[in-house]
Every structure is written in structure tokens, then in C-alpha cells.
């Protein structure tokens, strides 16, 4: 295999490098974390070339969703032996995202984040940031339009997921996937600190309709308006704000994934029910 290293001096130049030179190669290999992948994803999708991932970040939520191994040698083998697999891309206003876009607690937690804690504690490090941010996050009202229906939410956290994982291993929904052609939204109602703490195991594995205090929606697009302007965290970076339009771009990106992922979660093996509102 011939390998050519990208020629750019700052991360902001990565998308242009991919668009200018990416078609000269068989696969675009990206080494880094979710932020690096977020930066590159739209450019890779634009040139319609496959992307391979070496998970060198601290959270690696995208790689976790697709069962891409964190062992570097195994990840390199996946570059060569992996299956080309189509996945969805999320879009929020003028920003693209792979994993999750969040409003509320996650934005404050992003401000509090510690790379050291995230590296050693994974999801628990993110959870600890969320718990610390809880005291500084005021509840907010939001109007959400999905599939022609309007929903009024009272929330401290709204997450819109394209993928399954975010924050080092938290799940946006118990059945979220990167290739199901839908976005998953959960809204966490205001709770007392003790009640929030008791809910954390459910938030780590992903909320489902059995969890009291969580409102769940799924759809191809959401329109979200909040009572006050709120910042939006997309894949760990604050890049836009409300009001916001979210939509999914089905199959917009091709990624090298292990055969084990295709065998377990391949397109033909999962058909999610289309039930729209799963509010509790």
C-alpha cells in the first residue's frame, strides 16, 4: 500500500486539502478524535470518497459506534480490510455533525471539560462535567416541530443524535444508529440533583421510552426554537445557536468499517419502527 501524508499546516486547512487532493487516492485516512472527523466529514462526503478512521482522540465516539478498534494496529488493518459502508450525516443550520448536537447542559459541560478527565474516565468524565454544570444551567422552554407536529418542551438538555454515542460513551438513544436515516432527539426535564444522579446509568446506556422525565422523538428533520437564544454544541464544539433546523443526510458518507459491524448491525439486519413521538 502506498501512503501519502496530507500537506497542510493547520487543522482549518484540512477540508480544502481533502477537496483538492482526495480524489487522487483510494481512501482518505484520518487519525484523530471526533473533532478531527467532524472537520473533515463534509469535505470527504463532497468528493464521494471512502473515509477510514484511526481513533487517536480521547472520546472516539464515532469509532465506538462503528466498532472501529481503538488498537492502532487493528485500526490500520481495518483501513485495508474494512468494508465500504454508507452512513448518515447530520446538519444543523450551516454546521455538519457526525455524532450529536446538544443544547443546554452539554454546552456548559463542554466549557468545563478537562482533556485529562475525558482521557482517563471516558463517559464518567463527561458525566462529572454535566453534574458540575447542572448548577449553572437554567431550564429553558423549546418548541420542536417534527413530522408536521409541534411539541412544547421544558428542558435542561436537548440532544439531537445522528450517531449513537457522545461525550466519551454516553448514548443519545438506546437504539440510535448512524445508518438508519433518522435523527434521535431526547429532552431531559429539570430534575433535582439527586434524581439526576440516579438517572445517570440510563443516560450512559441511552434513554428509552421507559425512562420517566425524558421525552424522545425521532424523525428526518427537526425545527427547534427556544425561549431565549441558546448555543449549540456539535460534536464537542460550539458552532451555532438557536433557532435551528436539523436534518439528516442519509448515506452521505462512506466509511471503512469492520466486517463485525456489518454482520451485527448492517442495513438489512435492522428496521427501526417509525413511531415519531416516544414521549414519557
Automatic annotation (TrEMBL):
Family matches, as InterPro entries: ATP-NAD_kinase_N, Diacylglycerol/lipid_kinase, Diacylglycerol_kinase_cat_dom, Methylgl_synth, NAD/diacylglycerol_kinase_sf, YegS/DAGK_C
Biological process terms in GO annotation: methylglyoxal biosynthetic process; phospholipid biosynthetic process
This protein's UniProt keywords: Kinase, Transferase
Domain of life: Bacteria
Protein species of origin: Salinisphaera japonica YTM-1
Keyword Kinase appears in the UniProt entry: yes
Protein name in UniProt: Lipid kinase
Gene Ontology CC terms, in alphabetical order: cytosol
PANTHER family: METHYLGLYOXAL SYNTHASE (PTHR30492)
Signal peptide feature range: none
Lineage, opening ranks: Bacteria, Pseudomonadati, Pseudomonadota, Gammaproteobacteria, Salinisphaerales
GO terms of molecular function: ATP binding; kinase activity; methylglyoxal synthase activity
Domain (DAGKc) ranges: 1-96
Amino acid at each position: 500500500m502506498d501512503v501519502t501524508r496530507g500537506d497542510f499546516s493547520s487543522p482549518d486547512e484540512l477540508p480544502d486539502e481533502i477537496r483538492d487532493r482526495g480524489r487522487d487516492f483510494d481512501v482518505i485516512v484520518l487519525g484523530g478524535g471526533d473533532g478531527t472527523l467532524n472537520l473533515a466529514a463534509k469535505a470527504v462526503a463532497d468528493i464521494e470518497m471512502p473515509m477510514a478512521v484511526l481513533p487517536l482522540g480521547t472520546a472516539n465516539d464515532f469509532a465506538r459506534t462503528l466498532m472501529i478498534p481503538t488498537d492502532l494496529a487493528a485500526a490500520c488493518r481495518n483501513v485495508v480490510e474494512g468494508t465500504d459502508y454508507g452512513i448518515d450525516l447530520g446538519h444543523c443550520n450551516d454546521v455538519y455533525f457526525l455524532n450529536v448536537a446538544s443544547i443546554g447542559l452539554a454546552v456548559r459541560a463542554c466549557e468545563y471539560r478537562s482533556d485529562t478527565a475525558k482521557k482517563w474516565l471516558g463517559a464518567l468524565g463527561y458525566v462529572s462535567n454535566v453534574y458540575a454544570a447542572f448548577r449553572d444551567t437554567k431550564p429553558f422552554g423549546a418548541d420542536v416541530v417534527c413530522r408536521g407536529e409541534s411539541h412544547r418542551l421544558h428542558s435542561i438538555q436537548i440532544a439531537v443524535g445522528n450517531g449513537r454515542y457522545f461525550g466519551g460513551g454516553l448514548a443519545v438513544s438506546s437504539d440510535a444508529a448512524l445508518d438508519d436515516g433518522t435523527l434521535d432527539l431526547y429532552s431531559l426535564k429539570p430534575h433535582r440533583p439527586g434524581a439526576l444522579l440516579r438517572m445517570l446509568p440510563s443516560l450512559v446506556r441511552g434513554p428509552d421510552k421507559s425512562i420517566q422525565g425524558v421525552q424522545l422523538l425521532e424523525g428526518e428533520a427537526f425545527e427547534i426554537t427556544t425561549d431565549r437564544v441558546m448555543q449549540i454544541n456539535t460534536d464537542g464544539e460550539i458552532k451555532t445557536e438557536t433557532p435551528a433546523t436539523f436534518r439528516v443526510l442519509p448515506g452521505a458518507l462512506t466509511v471503512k468499517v469492520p466486517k463485525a459491524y456489518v454482520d451485527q448491525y448492517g442495513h438489512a439486519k435492522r428496521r427501526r419502527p417509525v413511531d415519531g413521538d416516544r414521549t414519557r
